[in-house]
Structure formats: structure tokens, C-alpha cells
Input
Amino acid sequence: MPYQLYRNTTLGNTLQESLDELLQMQMLTPALALRVLMQFDKAINTGLANRVKSKLHFRAEKLNTYRFCDNVWTFMLRDVEFREHAEFSRVDRVKIVACDAKNAISRPDPE
Output
């Protein structure tokens, strides 16, 4: 089963709101809405793994906290500098969630 991490993005939230609206109007069954969300999870994980080739470098003044649970790393950083080629940006706080890509590979849906 792919990670559901991207459901909390703008795109994921908008999809969920649209599905909720269709459910309220009874134009969609709960099973179909769940299937759409599962396809979204699969598609976004595959798309990011295969299509994004950009590299970004960052450096933090301080690593506030880190944890590793269920093959997911979470880092909370302070005073972070991001660099991509000639571009430079600085932010006060960043949360990085890193998931094991091997676990994101999904099995075919049983039909």
C-alpha cells in the first residue's frame, strides 16, 4: 500500500473535499471514493519517484528533534538554508518526513 502522506497537500485536500461533496450529493459511493484516494496515493508516489529529478541542498543551524518509526524518518530543523543552483532561500523552521521508497511500491489492486 503506498504512503498516504500526500493526502495532506493542497492537491490531496482538494481531492478529498471534492469527493466529500460528491458523497453528500450521493453521486459517489464510499467504496468508490476510497478507491479514488488509493489511486491518488499510488499515482503521486509513482510520479514523484519517477519524474522528479531536481536536487536541492539544505543546511540547518539546529536539528531540534528526529524520530524513526515504522520506516519513516521525521526531522524538525531550525534556521534552514536551501540552495538550488544559484537560488537561495532561508526559513525559520522545517519539518522533513522521509519514507522508505521500497515500502511505497504497491501490489496490484485485487479486483
Observations:
- The first strand starts at residue 57 and ends at 69.
- Confidence is low (pLDDT under 50) at residues 105-111.
